[in-house]
């Protein structure tokens, strides 16, 4: 590299600029001073030695005068040679000392973490690379390589899309099934299914009374069976009251949802965070709670919810606010919460877990207060999952259970609220859907817009997976639905940073 002054030579100067930027002594001035005095002195001395010495000196003086003459060809050649030497020296100096001044958006920009706005703990930013000096002829190539290697910001959706594109159909299908592990059953029972069928989720059922340490041992073992580097969701129903599967040392006895409804929002949020921390310590990352059902009939006759105090016991607005507090508290503990049972079980008399009788809702429609609690919560807190009930809703879709209704899932839920998260079914092992062939259960749910098939009967996992894979192999449209659902599931896993943390 050279300075601007070095590119523009002043023809009134006889020496080029020096490498440090200073200029040499003017030759015209030197001839009138130093050189002139020196030559005159030489002339006086030589005259006393005779004519021959005088002539010899005269010739020598004439040669020096000619050499310093601006129009002398020899002088021009010498100047050009000096210029070449100086420029070569400056170039070498630049090669040694030059460091590229990189833009702030380039090499020195630190990797950004995913800005997903979901409130889960962010992953650590990647360390930034450092710049180094390089030879001039390699500088541009090196800079290009370093800039291309600079980490870029990606969203959870983009990460999920990239992951799904590299998955086989069987791997995608596995992400859409939640298989049960009942208390007392060895985790190794699920090892072949996790490894060979690529299960994406596990549901802990029964009475796990071994405390945090016992549950943690089981969940750690389960995650070790994963061979595709995509950790599983491990879920349970930790609602409180009559529905709390994990107990023992380290687990708080959680009050019923109706008792939680008597707490302030802040108190409930703080309590939910504590309960969530206990789940997280036990290796559980999804809580299938809270219930946002608004009971609109006599509580004692509302078998699945009111009779068990599984609701907050408030108005639709109050239920929404308490549901939001619960979800936020769990999220602070890095546990995903699930609002259920959309569009509500507060107007039925039968419990879908045990019967198909009395599970038809004749009250709820698109303007019902049943939906208000869910819609308000979704708008304000965007829960990790929404669970769809197995009830039939005459004023919404009278032909099929909600879990198999595209109108309820896609139009009433997704389109009207803008919710694009994971939709999970209530257990499709329940009595309410016993009339369906097991291989059809998963396909019907996914065709309706659902994502994760929840099962409480281990023997049904294989047939459900087989049905999903078979349908996708024979229908490109269904294969696209499988891929879209797998992307939503993986997006949530990236949002929750499960991959970085496990």
Estimated share of beta-strand residues: 5-15%
- What is the CATH superfamily label of the largest domain? Glycoside hydrolase, family 3, N-terminal domain
CATH class designation of the largest domain: Alpha Beta
Number of domains: 2
Total helical segments? 19
CATH topology value of the largest domain: TIM Barrel
Which architecture name of the largest domain does CATH use?
Alpha-Beta Barrel
Oligomer: single chain
Whole-angstrom Rg: 40 Å
- Overall, the morphology is elongated
What structural category do the secondary elements indicate? alpha/beta
pLDDT averaged over residues: 81
Number of strands: 12
Relative helix content: 40-55%
Q: Please give the largest β-sheet.
A: 8 strands, parallel
Strand order of the largest sheet: 11-9-7-6-3-2-1-12
Write up this protein.
- By secondary structure, the protein is an alpha/beta fold.
- It has 2 domains: 4-97, no CATH class; 156-501, TIM Barrel, CATH 3.20.20.300.
- Helices cover 45% and strands 9% of the residues.
- It contains 19 helices and 12 strands.
- The chain has helices at residues 4-7, 27-32, 34-47, 51-68, 73-97, 136-148, 156-165, 169-174, 191-197, 211-224, 257-260, 265-281, 316-332, 369-381, 406-417, 438-447, 461-474, 476-495, 498-501, and strands spanning 177-182, 201-205, 233-236, 238-240, 243-244, 286-287, 336-342, 360-361, 385-388, 392-393, 422-425, 453-454.
- Strand 4 and strand 5 form a beta hairpin.
- Helix 13 runs parallel beside helix 14 and helix 17 packs across helix 18.
- It is elongated, with a radius of gyration of 40 Å.
- Residues 1-65, 92-116, 123-140 and 146-150 have low confidence and may be disordered.
């Amino acid at each position: 590299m050279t300075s601007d002054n070095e590119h523009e030579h002043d023809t009134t100067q006889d020496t080029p600029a020096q490498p440090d930027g200073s200029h040499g002594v003017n030759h015209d001035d030197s001839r009138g001073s130093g050189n002139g005095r020196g030559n005159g002195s030489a002339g006086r001395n030589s005259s006393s030695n005779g004519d021959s010495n005088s002539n010899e000196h005269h010739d020598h003086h004439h040669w020096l005068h000619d050499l310093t003459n601006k129009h002398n060809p020899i002088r021009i050649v010498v100047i050009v040679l000096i210029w070449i030497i100086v420029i070569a020296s400056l170039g070498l100096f630049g090669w040694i000392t030059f460091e590229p001044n990189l833009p702030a958006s380039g090499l020195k920009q630190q990797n950004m973490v995913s800005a997903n706005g979901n409130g889960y703990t962010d992953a650590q930013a990647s360390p930034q690379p450092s710049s180094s000096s390089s030879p001039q002829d390699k500088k541009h190539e090196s800079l290009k390589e370093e800039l291309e290697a600079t980490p870029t910001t990606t969203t959870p959706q983009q990460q999920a899309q990239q992951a799904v594109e590299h998955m086989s159909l069987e791997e995608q299908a596995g992400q859409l099934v939640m298989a049960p592990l009942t208390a007392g059953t060895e985790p190794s029972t699920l090892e072949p299914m996790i490894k060979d069928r690529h299960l994406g989720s596990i549901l802990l059922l029964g009475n796990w009374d071994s405390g945090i340490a016992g549950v943690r041992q089981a969940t750690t073992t389960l995650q070790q069976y994963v061979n595709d580097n995509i950790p599983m969701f491990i879920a349970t129903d930790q609602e409180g009251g009559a529905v709390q599967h994990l107990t023992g040392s380290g687990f708080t006895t959680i009050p019923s949802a109706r008792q939680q409804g008597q707490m302030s929002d802040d108190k409930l949020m703080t309590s939910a965070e504590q309960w969530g921390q206990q789940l997280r310590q036990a290796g559980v990352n999804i809580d299938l709670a809270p219930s946002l059902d608004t009971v609109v009939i006599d509580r004692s006759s509302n078998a699945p919810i009111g009779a068990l105090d599984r609701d907050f016991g408030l108005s639709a607005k109050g239920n929404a606010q308490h549901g939001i507090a619960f979800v936020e508290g769990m999220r602070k503990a890095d546990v995903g919460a699930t609002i259920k049972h959309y569009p509500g079980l507060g107007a039925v008399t039968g419990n879908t877990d045990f019967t198909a009788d009395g599970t038809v809702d004749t009250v709820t429609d698109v303007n019902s207060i049943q939906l208000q609690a869910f819609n308000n919560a979704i708008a304000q807190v965007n829960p990790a999952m929404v669970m769809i009930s197995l009830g039939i809703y005459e004023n919404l879709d009278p032909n099929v259970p909600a879990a198999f209704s595209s109108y309820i899932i896609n139009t009433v839920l997704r389109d009207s609220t803008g919710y694009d998260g994971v939709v999970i079914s209530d257990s499709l092992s329940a009595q309410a859907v016993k009339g369906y062939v097991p291989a059809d259960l998963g396909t019907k749910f996914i065709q309706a817009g659902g994502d994760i098939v929840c099962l409480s009967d281990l023997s049904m996992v294989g047939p459900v997976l087989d049905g999903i894979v078979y349908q996708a192999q024979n229908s490109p449209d269904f294969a696209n639905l499988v891929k879209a659902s797998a992307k939503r599931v993986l997006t949530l896993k990236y949002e929750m940073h499960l991959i970085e943390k496990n």
